[in-house]
Amino acid sequence: MTQSQPEISPYDTGARCEPKLWQPNSEAVDAVMRSGEAEDIGNVDFTSDEDSTVVTVHVSRSDDGMYTVHLMPMCSDDQIRVEFHGEKGLVVIEPGASQPA
Cα–Cα distances in Å, from 68 out to 48, 71, 80? Predict the structure, then answer.
């Protein structure tokens, strides 16, 4: 009988960044709330295969009911491309496509 080799995940190959929750459980969330750092709740770091943070992401809901995805690059801005996969198709935001005034 031969043992099957474990498959290498996209995290292992570097094809995908691995998610790492800032607060992995409710006790950690409670601790953050008590510390007064509530703006950190829901943040997720995505790390490279070298375990360095590439981007920190969270989603918030505005008073108007809209959801906003917040991307905070921890690398050079020209290393981040955003792909939005919506009902009307794919929209790609290339590095440098929109700069603040």
Answer: 24, 10, 18
Please, what sign has the CA dihedral across residues 22, 53, 57, 76? positive
Query: Dihedral sign, CA of 39, 93, 79, 53?
Result: positive
Is 0.85 surpassed by the pTM of this model? Answer: no
Per-residue pLDDT of the chain (101 residues; tens, 9 = 90+): 556 767 899 998 999 999 999 998 999 989 988 998 888 889 999 999 899 999 999 999 999 999 999 999 999 988 999 999 999 999 999 887 765 55
CA atoms within 13 A on the CB side of 84: 10
Q: Which structure tokens are listed for 92?
A: 């790609």
Tell me the three state secondary structure of residue 9.
coil
